[in-house]
């Protein structure tokens, strides 16, 4: 049986490893990471992604653009997306929700908040 | 401040490494921004990148529980956000505030390492207050142009971040034409195609947003809509992109696809308020204007799934470990070789030869491995240059001096650890060059020089070492003044008969400072003695050259790596030592009859020059009784101008050694920089030639 695959998109390596180490506590997960929107676009066709966690503020292709692509693409449109950003980028988070983000997380968040959200999609 | 629990040390290390990178990048970009602002115009992209840096840092610091850093980054981010959104303008005061934010962040990150973060609370609070004082919009934000009339698709508009929307408005109100460039690329190679298009677009305007979209062949292709603001009218714009397989949409335009000639180039975008009605009347739907026939994507492009980011970040400690293992392998190899030799001597010829061959093969591979591991440690000194150029800009701003920093040889590679350790001494030398060397613009003009002073920073590899030179075209060092100063400070008793070179060396004495008044720049309690000690700590040497009225040159000679260095192994008074080959000029046989005594010191004449001799047994206070030296050698160490002959009993040859520090107990030991394993279970001391020369010149040693 294929394990549940989560794609983490964040340009911060430290942030990615923090997310990974938190998610790993859930066990049987396959986690793939992309350091930017480009790499995420590449990974989508390669990996069978079941959930996307994306930062919003990234160079070149940002989280909203990635989200919009996912929602408009018949192949990926049903993949749940969680957008992550800081307080102060509320407007961007709202935009994310109107673009079809399933959930959002405001940095800084506690590990439990992340786990609680991710568990809903497992 | 910090609400969450203390993060694990691994996570903290991750955070610090990345945070440091962000702040460094931030400072460089700020300096660039300051440069651009000085010239009157700055790139919105640059400002946004700076904003993003502060934003990322805030998020990171918050996540990792460094509340104070998150707070400071947050305030800087706020100011940057107002700037990029056009709510405050980029004044000198705002720039200073941003520079001080970057500096404070650097300080705080360092304090994280030292565990002294709490001491900076007051500074952080003051910083927050200083920034908050700026965040009061005096003038209400100008009424933004309506974006609806551009007729951009909902999916495009919906994915714009707040900032991108702002940029779109900015472009409209500047009267720029807004285009949507649509391109389709093969899924496997889209990044190359996209960056080609983006580069061209950036050359003629601003890429406001890059939206991936879904095209006809969604299994194999990925499409992009690039939202662009440009001064070029649509014909010029189309001309520019004519070789690319793209479609251009003129936003808010009235152009019809079949009559492009009649189009009035995008004046609608220029004066949106007046044309809203007209546009709405006609059509709100943008009309596609195909610029070129579709050219099939080059089929020979190889499929690639490789990641765009091709670097890994590795703790240098891991490389040290690897290097140690390589060193041990080398030792293991030499025991295998010697077994092979012994076997051959005892007559197991066939097997001995095979073993010998295998050992040779192993040796070759080991050499490759060693080289490979060393290569990983190498980084271009250009990374240092960036830091230095920031410092130069900062100091010249503070001092009102005009300075041009010329940099050469940024690609020269050095061991990462050396680059780190050399940063502070190099910074100090450059500070000195600006503070004491380069004159004020008025004085320069009076002296018939260009009012803009020049500091030349150059690096190059010379044999087994790397040379870094800092040269200025300032006033030079006044040698008489130095002598007087040293005398008045009681650093020397007698200045009569002192050569210029010896006088220049006084600068490196502890407690020496030539500045008449201590300025903010150089007078930070760090003397040139510290500079020299820090350079010696990485087995390097520093030398000065100066011409009064014309400038000075500081030359730093460094080994390429500390991990493995070549050393001359010498034998003296029953003991074996290593001298780093970087410090060895030459070795000669000592003719006892050549030795003369000048002022109680032994010297010889070498090619018309007097060379002072040093006897190691005296320096290290070894008892030589019962050991007959027989023929002796002189190992000449130092640089062209400052030499010393070390008398030794025998030269045992050259060898690669790994220098290991001696530990705190031996820190005060003069003339020794560490220890090394020789491979035959023997550990020997490694001599610090620079330190020995300094010691001898000061009248210590021989």
Automatic annotation (TrEMBL), chain A:
Protein's organism: Trichlorobacter thiogenes
Boundaries of every Response regulatory domain copy: 5-122
Keywords assigned by UniProt, alphabetized: Phosphoprotein
GO biological process terms on file: phosphorelay signal transduction system
InterPro entries: Bact_response_regulator, CheY-like_superfamily, Sig_transdc_resp-reg_receiver
SMART domains on file: REC
Protein name in the entry: Two-component system, chemotaxis family, response regulator CheY
Signal sequence range: none
Keyword flag Phosphoprotein: yes
Modified residues (4-aspartylphosphate): 55
Coiled-coil ranges (or none): none
Highest taxon above the source species: Bacteria
